[in-house]
Amino acid sequence: MKNKLVDYFFDKYGFLSILNKNKKFEDKFKKFITEVISLKAENYVDHIFSSITFISSDEYSEILYDFAEFLLDEYSETNTLLCATAADNDKDSSQYILYDITTAIAFISDRKYETCTRYDKAAETIKNLQAKKVFIDRIIFVDEFFGSGDTASGRVRTFIRHLQDKKMAIIKDINFFVVASHVRSFSLMKNNIYVKNYYTVKVLNNVISKIEDDLEKNSYYYLNFIWCRLFSQAYKEKDLPDLGYGNCEASYYREKGSCPNNVLPIMWWPHTCDGLWREPIFPRYI
What we know:
Layout: H1 4-12, H2 14-19, H3 25-39, H4 42-50, E1 53-55, H5 57-74, E2 80-84, H6 93-108, E3 114-116, H7 122-131, E4 138-146, H8 150-165, E5 173-182, H9 183-190, E6 195-204, H10 214-228, E7 234-235, E8 238-239, E9 252-254
Parallel strand pairs: 1-9, 2-3, 2-4, 4-5, 5-6
Antiparallel strand pairs: 7-8
Helix pairs in contact: 5-6
């Protein structure tokens, strides 16, 4: 790599070398660096990279196997439902997590948990299981990433309402397993009166607002604003979230994953203001 700034970032941040195993990543990163240089955003990107929570495929595998062992120790398969937090028929990272957890369980045990791939079908699934003499009174919702926590809180309220609509007993043992959480969702769910346990491995903070120096902080906010003006301001009826959805200012990526929309969009937003594909360094399927 001949670009000195590219070399600097690759030498400093090991996660870039991991991503560079994908033969297309180097070209994407060079285009990203072109944006960085044109905006004189070297220090800003350095700060984002230094704040990143990056999960490699190896670490992700360890996280899932650790949780599978914990699950087998603490939760019986006879009364526990594992449920993805997906809300419709579209693909969702929570279903990926559910699949990988059950695969990890199968690798270390022959025990089988009941599963559900959509949170809005959980109450119906529990009722159908009751007809088969399988009585669920514990549920674990699983997902990869929670940002503001508003969506997760809404999932809990809707699940309880569905139980009430079906005239079923309210399940008081509601739990969550989330690979990574923004500090807002972590706090919100930990204090949710309906949630018994909230398990998460990584907790993230806002990467700009945490800066103590006001001059540096405000300069990064301004730079981020200018950078986002180079992008389309909406895509497929989804507005551009300058600071990530819910203003989470997250810096996060899982190897081979789909980037959460709570992450700063300079990392994943797909199109320029001219409607051209931007080739972001972190993919997100919108």
